[in-house]
Amino acid sequence: MPLVAILPVLLSLLFLCALASPGIAALDRFARFLTPLERFAYGAVLGIVAGTLALVPAATLLGFSPPVVLGVGVASVGVATLLVFAPGRLRRGRRRGGGPPVALGQRLRDLAGRLDPWATALVALLAVRWALLWSSALTIRPDGLWAGHEYLWSDWPTHLGIVTRFAFGGNFPPEHLLYAGLPLSYHYLSDLTPAAFVVLGMDVLAVLPFHSFLLSILAALGLYAFARRLSGVRSIATLAVILFVFGAGLGWIATVARIDSTHDLAGTLVDAPWDA
Description:
The chain has helices at residues 3-30, 36-62, 66-85, 89-93, 104-113, 117-135, 150-169, 189-199, 204-231, 234-246, 251-262, 265-270, and strands at residues 138-141, 144-147. By secondary structure, the chain is mostly helical. It has one domain.
């Protein structure tokens, strides 16, 4: 992939991380009863939602342009920095008994030491699977644009329309795409974030799969953290993620049957991954 195509992806990823940072910092400051994984998984989504919501008034006043999008990202990092280093943060970060605050590096090492190897491996495998899955969601073929599944055929044309209207149509304050003068009452924040990726240079057909892939990983982490909170047992939480991901239907049985008949695990998973 040429560098000119990679840079917008990296910039969009950094922008999403910037949006996530205030949510993580807020939970780390005010919700210390949560585990580090809970603070990260829940806080990242919280920050992304809040930061995307902040784009609406900013774009309404100043236009939906790269400087505005990057400005919201920089402001998000600023808020996160204030939450981490504002007065009173060290007192909350002290150990019980009045000891010195725990250094960030030590906290990261402690977190790494508490990682569940089975859950980590599961999330890594899901990330690889979702990378293959979402990369095939929208593809250009000689006869036109192809969607990987019928749900995408019916749903994503609407989302692509909202994304392109935000990115290229100056739709601020948001107005209905079909009925002039009526407000866009659809829950459009999930389209505004990918539209910001388009403004930062990503291809329109890549932003929805990219956004979906990243949020799928956060969803898996959040699900594991929630199951761990309920059960208190790592193995049960890992099993809960497996049952949740594979328990939505019996379509996976057809995939297993194809793997058994072809004796080609990777090839079967890559070929028409949306089928079942």
